[in-house]
Sequence to fold (285 residues):
Amino acid sequence: MRIATWNVNSVKQRAPRLLDWLDQRQPDVVCLQETKLADDAFIALLGDELAARRYELAVHGQASWNGVAILSRVGLADVVRGFPGEPGFPQVEARAVTATCDGVRITSVYVPNGRDPESDHYRYKLEWLAGLRDSLRGRPAATVVCGDLNVAPTDDDVFDPASFAGHTHVTEPERAALVELQALGLRDVMRERWPDERVFTFWDYRAGMFHKDLGMRIDLLLASDAVADRVAATWVDRQARKGTGPSDHAPVIMDLDDAPDGDIGPVVPPPSAPAPRRGRTSPPR
DNA sequence: ATGCCTGAAGGGTTCAGA
Fold:
C-alpha cells in the first residue's frame, strides 16, 4: 500500500497537477492539506475525476483557507472530521480528518502556522497540537498521523537554523509538542529511513529557494509500530515541486509491505543470509 | 528587501503563508 501526504496549497489551483500526479505515482491513499475549498466545491471540482480513478473521498474543507482531505482506493470507513475537543481560532477550523483505509487509521492534519511566537496564533498552535495528542490516546494499533505539522523536528530539518532563531516552526515548545504527539508511539518514518540526509518538504516560493534547496522538513508521516514496521520505502517527491505552477510543498510518500494476516504464512528468512536492505527505490533528493 | 512568491477575497489592495 502506498500512502502519501501533500500540502497542495489550493486544490483548485493544483487540480491539473494533482490528477497528473495521481496517474503517475498511483498512491492508494492520499492525505491533502490546504485544499482551500468548501466540501461541495471540492466535490464539484474533482469528484468525477477522482471517481474515475477509483478514489473515494473524505473532505473536511472551508472556503479560502485551511481544508484537509483523504483520498483512498483501498476503502474509506468511519470518517471523522476534526477531533473531540479541537480548539478554534476562535472558531474551529478545517484542519483534521480521519478515516480507516485498509485497516489503518489515518489522520490528515494541517497544524496551525503559529505566525509569531508572541501571538495568540502560536498559543493556538500549541493547544491544537496538545488536543490532537489527547484525541489519539486510545488510538488503534495501526495508526498514521500525517500532513503539514508546521514544525521542523530538529535543526537538521531546516536549511539554516540560525536564520530561524526566534521564529515559529523551530521553537522548543513546538518541538516539545511534536515529541509529545510522537510519545503516543508514532514514529517519523521519513527520518528513520534517511537519518543523515538533507531532506526538505517545503521551499518558499521566493528567491529561488527550491532551486537552491533552501527548505524545511515540516510535512511528516508519523506511524505506529504496526505500520512503521511495514515501511519498505519512503521519500519526498521533489519532482512534484518542479516546473510550472507547483505547490510550495512536495508530497511525502511511503510504501508499506502487505500486512501479516496469516494468508501469506510465516516469513522465514533464508538461513545465514543477511537481512535484505529495505527498498531504496529513490534517492531522497 | 525585514513578505523577494503565491493564493484568495474583494475591490483597485490586503492578509496569510512558514
Residues 9-10, 12-13, 34, 36, 63-65, 113-115, 150, 152, 164, 167-169, 202, 204-209, 216, 218, 245, 247-248 of chain A lie near DNA strand B (CB under 10 Å from a C1'). Residues 2-250 of chain A form a domain with the Deoxyribonuclease I; Chain A fold (CATH 3.60.10.10). The mean pLDDT of chain A is 93.
